[in-house]
Amino acid sequence: MQRMENLDACLPRTLQDIGIYETFHLNRIVHEWKKIVGPGFAKNSRILHIEPPVLVLSAFTSQWMQEIKMQEKQIIKKINEFYGHPVITSIRLQMHRQSFVKDINNEDAVLPYLIGRPKYMGDGSYDTSKITISDEELARIDATLVNIENPKLKEIARQAQINQCKKNKHLAERGFHQCPVCGTWMTVPRKVCVTCDYMFYRKHIGTIKRVLRKYPNIRQDQIQQFVKCSMNAFNEAKKESIYYYMDKIHFGSTDQRQKYMLAMLITGKSVKDLSEDFVNNLCNKYRSKYLDEKKR
């Protein structure tokens, strides 16, 4: 009688034989996400897509999006330790998008920008047969399908657009309005949704950081001639810039430019006001932490 092989032993080989082992191996991270990043990160983020070397994550709030961005290198390190070899080198972040119709009564699943939303009757579902589409709207939909030759595919695409049009009407009738940038539905009186607002904020921070790379000892009142920014935005950009160069020094960089950039960002002094000994001592402070950790 042939001995039955252990499932743990035969599963990887079987998956390899049918050509999906690599996909199975990559997606193990989804089920182990809480163990890898901890309960806090796991509760406030979700894996959307894995395409090495990039991992696409959604964050449930702008605060957690910023937290994940700040901890990106540590998260990547934990992920690669889980895989046993370098797989992911960067994380791309998106704001979590909620299906307003499907989960409209699920308070735990609604994002902060839905606060103040209209109260719904029933379970939040809607009957598409009771929502009418005008001839003009149908004509606009048909105009987008003229290049689809396959009649079955064309009908599927047409029906999908009709259903989306009806869903949009359903939401609009109940007080929702769309973000003009990405089309996300929301009820709070704001020009753009949280996701786009955060995207614009990050672009603004990036602009400030580019100025800081040119003038690392510049003050907030002086930077206004290059980019208008609040003290909070300036401090955020400066903090991230300091962390960037601190990380370089911490992991052993001896580049003089990076050393002076870190010193100028921290002290606000110009190159002529910084002695070489002071800069070296400052940088050695952070480099020594790395060397001590490496010896352990």
Automatic annotation (TrEMBL):
Pfam family, one: DciA
InterPro entries: DciA-like
Annotated protein name in UniProt: DUF721 domain-containing protein
Species for this entry: Veillonella absiana
